[in-house]
Description:
Layout: E1 2-13, E2 22-33, E3 37-41, H1 48-56, E4 63-68, E5 74-77, H2 89-94, H3 104-113, H4 129-141, E6 147-151, H5 159-176, E7 179-184, H6 187-193, E8 196-200, E9 207-212, H7 223-236, H8 239-243
Parallel strand pairs: 3-7, 3-8, 5-6, 6-7
Antiparallel strand pairs: 1-2, 1-4, 8-9
Helix pairs in contact: 3-4, 4-5, 6-7
Amino acid sequence: MAALSLEVREKWFPAVAAAPPKLVLDNVRLAVAAGERLAIIGPSGCGKTTLLNIVAGLERTFAGRLELAAATRLAYVFQEPRLLPWRTVEDNLRLVLPETPDPTARIGATLAEVGLGAARHVYGSRLSLGMARRTALARAFVVEPDLLLLDEPFVSLDEPTAQRLRLLLLDLLDRHNTTALFVTHSLHEAIMVADRLLLLTASPGRVLTSCPVPLRREERRQPRAIETFRDRLLREQPQVAELLLPDPPQPGELVA
């Protein structure tokens, strides 16, 4: 069963001042099965975030169609954590559960899942960037989403912290069996997280290729397995390397 089906024949940004209209996405189609994780990768400006915004309903002016499974509960993890700094960690989660009579237990369980059980009363302004991004993940999962959108959620983090959060995300996705659309510039990161890759060309974004990631769950924690598949993909489809920034150096071991 498809959790999501999207066809974007054209998506334009309107003219602004002296700048002419800009074609952002051109004939992009994707379908995501329930429980699948799809990574959308490509160069800056190719429309990756715009695709997520269309799925989220934040961008409504496009030529095409969007179909979501009935009663889809959606959560979005943005590039920035977008926490209210004058609210505590617990309060930031409570804000997304307005119709839950007493969400305290659910919030506590979710914060424990992401390793923030002891930080529930810390204000957003006092969090490190890594803790703020953990809070953003907790805020997404506390609503028990059917479909999770993630827009480069680990950008600007040092590599060890980003790696710990990737592992945390893998654990959460496995535990909750959540369908996910994951935007990233990093091919390594996409292979680690996703069951399938959708690669877009430079602007206007078009589908260059779509390919499965044939790694078992345990192999996604093994740098050698990830790099072996990455090298094979780049050998078989060398045009992919021309579109992507080099991945940052990866640690020799993945640590929890």
